[in-house]
Records
---
Amino acid sequence: MTIQFSNHMPEIVANRRYLHQIPEIGLSEFKTSDFVAEQLSTMGYEVARGLGKTGVVATLRNGTSRRSVGIRADFDALPILEETGAEYTSTHPGVMHACGHDGHTAMLLGAARILAERKSFDGTVHLIFQPAEENFGGARIMMDDGLFNKFPCDAIFALHNDPSMPFGQFAFREGPIMASADECKITVVGRGGHGAEPQEAADPIVAGASIIMALQTVISRNIHPLQSAVITVGAFNSGIASNVIPERAEMKLTIRALDDNVRDELERRIRLIAEAQAASYGVSVEIDYERGYPPTINHKSETDYVRQLAMRFAGGEHVVDMPQPIMGSEDFAFMLQERPGTYFFLGTAKTENDPPLHHPKFDFNDDILPTGTAFWVELVEDYLSSK
Ligand SMILES: [Zn+2]
Ligand SMILES: [Zn+2]
């Protein structure tokens, strides 16, 4: 570890715990946004507000170089009732920082202060504090509000804490690192009737069951064996009585892919199968297919760059390449579609079996704050090096 900034740590820990106490759901992070913006203003940043409703972009220029770099921290929380028992537990009942975005924000705020004090770079740094990572795609909304037009970035970077990875380990992956996440609701519309007179009805449950089974063939028969994808039918609801054939059946799917072509093929096949199966049973389907976050695809040269930096910063024994992507999703994916950059993980394990992300007992590991903060400082000062 090259730099520690231990004199800044009490403030950074205090910020993290304060943010933990005021968790807010995506696009309503009003207190969080105010807190972040006020801190950044006092540090001397130009602070822009209102991108993505509650988003904050803080800009600091130094020297004469036209180079620029963007770092993003997400700051929204989750609808979870906290069970950590921490003295700084959530003061907003039913809302909780269970994904560690309080830690991401505290590290970037800490780096902001240190960068402003040292002024040891040549160029422009844009610190992007983003709302609504968990639900509404705050990244996309900030971009629709002109993020990269108003704040051009040569490259962008973001990290996520990972309590399942060894403490202090950096994990990188070139290409896809997280999956797309799409949703589909299929409503099978049949003709209800008496359970003893099936010949007079068009049973949406049997047709729905057949659709669900046929969907299992999409991954096994239509997608290349070396490509990855997921179709999960997470809900299938219909009927209430044993002797009544209902009118409708409804199913809800989550669909994941690591590649845009695979993603398109999944949608095409799901629609086709649902419609063709339905027709064969004499029922119809209404399909509501919603595209969510795209696959998160890391760019090669920025990934190589940050991996090299982490090797120097933390030592090779603390740097790994992820053998596989994760089938979860992340809206930094939208930003990586427009700007080169990379998204990576920082291991934060305390014990063998820490509560996972999104668990009511999850608590961001404050011991990693010095590492994450110092790494952002190192990245900005190296990327915008005057040498
Ligand atoms: Zn999360
Ligand atoms: Zn998260």
---
Amino acid sequence: MSNKNPDDEEISLNNADLEELRRSLRAIVDIRDRQYGFPPKTYGSCFVGSEAVAKLIEKGLAADEDDAVRLGNVMLHAGIFHHVQRAHVFKNEHLFYRFASDEDHGGVPDAVADGSSVKWADFLGILTSTMGADGSLQPTLPEPDADLANMDQIDLEAIGVSPLDEHNARLLDNVHPKRWLDPEPKSYNLVVIGAGAGGLVSAAGAAGVGARVALIESHLLGGDCLNVGCVPSKALLRCARAAAEVRDAGRFGVRIDGEISVDFGYVMERMRRLRAQISPVDSARRYSGPLGVDLFMGRGVFTGKNSIEVNGKTLTFAKAVIATGGTAAIPNIPGLADAPYLTNNSIFNLTELPKRFGVIGAGPIGLEMAQAFQRLGAKVTVFSRDEQILPKEEPEAVAIVKESMIRDGVAFAFNSAFKRIEGKGEKGPVRVVLDDNGTERYLEFDALLIAAGRKPSVAGLGLEQAGVEFDARLGVVVNEKLQTTNPDIYAVGDVAGRYQFTHMADFMARLVIKNALFFGRDKVSELLIPWATYTDPEVAHVGLYEKDLKERNIPFATFKREFSDVDRGIVDGIASGYVKIHVAKGKDRILGATIVGSHAGDMISEITVAMRAGMGLGRLAGVIHPYPTAAEAIRQCGDAYNRERLTPTVKSIFHNLMALRR
Ligand SMILES: Cc1cc2nc3c(=O)[nH]c(=O)nc-3n(C[C@H](O)[C@H](O)[C@H](O)COP(=O)(O)OP(=O)(O)OC[C@H]3O[C@@H](n4cnc5c(N)ncnc54)[C@H](O)[C@@H]3O)c2cc1C
């Protein structure tokens, strides 16, 4: 029998050898009930790892400590004994192990099949018992116990998710199990680095068509979108909308007497609960189980053109996908590095509302969070280096969003010349010092969010060894097929794309599966990508903007309908927002559209479907829409298009026909 040592070289032992070893070890170690953990639990019939090592050497069964640990791991791997909490490697440390034959003692549930033997939830009892008397959800971590010195303490900073309440514990059990035993590496059809939207879809899709796939994640499965992006931000925005609706209820004759307040702690807890609720879809258990992917939890680094190393093991591949995403870009403002600032990585850990909230950056992320925090009760200031907000969107749409945010109470500091940022320690206040025509202007905040753009994660990936060209600002260089300069390696998502959206990463991944595994020739430029910014009102867009059409000299006509002219908009009391659709001049072909309104993100799909299906605006006019809905604005643009299409001759024929019928 060959027993693979999980740590290093292979040791060959037959069953008789193993049985001999088992008997020898049992005879020399001290087996008794012991206490372990925080708070202490009693585990029956245990022996101590470090004592076992010492005894193996003392009795001449092992030459030295390394040898003893190696033997221990062989026995562990062969199922002769387990760590009391299962699946813990055998170490030359003060950890408790139990022989399989003594297994019915103990009282700790069996390890789950995915290798996650120590659950984050196991720590809940400990953490909730240490909550402050003020009821804050922010836990104070227990001091490490001497007995537990060898057990990894919960490193919240490294994991980056807090507070460790029941929701975050559930999230982490799904997306970053406390312990994970990597599978034995094989040679793979596809290795995927990064388990955000792009990596997960690449891995699941490839495994689904029969490929042998490895997925490597260094931090949290689900990437930014689930953990620190789309999901938590949209959960906060929903609460912010509720707050605004209550504030504005008087417009609808709803009088609210007494004080109205937002319970920020509840808002954040709700977000954590919903994020945890969504997390099983991206979980380690699902990927390594039903989806059949080999999941490695660690940092992947290319070591050659067709090899990658993770946790000291080398994986070889026919094809690979880089899906390492990006992180918040930190602007070069003096003092910022030492000041306590938030990014999307930390903002969702807040448990208390910062009363004065500064946001550097006026793109979608900055504006969504600015509006949310203002509506939840903070006093928000948004800084922009120029006069623009949402620089991608058309000015008319931007003006409506800006007006709405100003109405909410958000202050904008345009053309901000940052002199420095002042602030120390882990918490605010933090001061933004501006150069106001030669004099210094100070603005003080309890928290400062940096949302000044994104930086692709390309550093330390070994891209040079793999022959993959990249740029620190623009990310991995890819061709139309999303192939990098190494033809066996592809890149998807934020690390390789200008369109940094979850749905874009998803569809890039689908394209790569075809191109990498099935000789596909799909091109990224053929994708039609809608997007939305989820401020109130939302701004959604697909296709070309007016300025693109002008720059490219494409003749076009524009059809626009204000929601304030649509019956649904009128009864809903909508004062601004519109549907605007550009059509090729003389052809019934939609070239682009922008919608500004409360459900613009949902509504844009109708136009996207039409564009994909080659359905013109004239034909959209023939699609029956329920009355009264906001989407009627789209059909009414179609009506306007059809009316304009009637040539003077056709109009006069109709006119004469009607006259005859009177
Ligand atoms: C606040 C916020 C709100 C957003 N809202 C929306 C929205 O509403 N709609 C929308 O479409 N998009 C939204 N986005 C953008 C969206 O989150 C990203 O476009 C999407 O997450 C990109 O997916 P990805 O797979 O490219 O990268 P990521 O999600 O960043 O995943 C990359 C993964 O790779 C891992 N990794 C990196 N290096 C290594 C390595 N060497 N080894 C192993 N693993 C590694 C990382 O840990 C990470 O888990 C938002 C983003 C933010 C920040």
---
Amino acid sequence: MIPRLKFAHLPTTIEAMPRLSGALNGPRLLVKRDDQTGLAFGGNKTRKLEFLVAEAQSQGAKTLITAGALQSNHCRQTAAAAARFGFDCILVLVGEPPAETSANLLLDQLFGAQIIWTKKSLRDKTLQEVFETSASKGQKPFLVPYGGSNPTGALGYVFAMEEFISQNIPADWIVIASSSGGTQAGLVLGARVFGYPGKILGISVDEPKHTLQRRVATLASETGKRMEKKMGFTEDEVLVNSDYSIPGYGVMTPAEVEAISLFARYEGLLLDPVYTGRAAAGMIDLIRKGFFNRNDTVLFWHTGGQPALFAEKYQNDLAR
Ligand SMILES: Cc1ncc(COP(=O)(O)O)c(C=O)c1O
């Protein structure tokens, strides 16, 4: 039995987006609300952390250590899970302490996480050093991988696919923001294990197409092994569009601003500037280009991240 804690608010609902669909003159649009998974404003990390925190507990760990960007949703949710289950938490964040502490960083601090700052080029090294120091002090550290994306974390999305299939609302396409790849890998494996016939399109947030395809295929295969299923995945079985990643990680362009604004004004839904804003911008562009058939059903799998809306860096562009 693979250990799992159950704290996510599941199943997440699937809602129709008829006004957005009408405004875009597009296919039928649905949204799966994984921004409502619970745990510190929810998001895709909750499902991954059910397995990762259970593994940490089963190993007798006392401290969760992870790394990410200054406004990392993964770090915010890991810090919350640590607080909830009685671990200490150390976060290695890339950047420098900002003049004003806002959004996810503010929440990291509220959850009592210790923050260590590093440069991007030194991230892996700093993480390793922090881990070793913590171990040598007897703090029993457990390393939560970047983005929660290893075979343990990806299990969360294998079972998310099972949940989606059991909701019996068929979709021809699932569109999802993809970055460290665990979410897409879990869905791709889950689709094969539980039998979802549609397509899963990852909109790359920050990686070139082939890098992300390779990462997702490898992770899906490894996660299959973790489940004792012999299932191999090749790169070309993983659908990725990286056209929208060109501006770079965390750079909010007019396309993300428009996507955030369309979801807000037509559906009363909030996206985030980094991940779901970019994935939705990609989906909207693909709709306009006629990529989907008019009678397709396209499900936007919302992975959360909205606290970043309140990060200082995005305020000027969003406040109009
Ligand atoms: C809100 C949000 N959506 C999507 C993703 C991407 O998920 P993954 O890293 O599993 O590809 C992240 C990752 O940090 C995220 O925070």
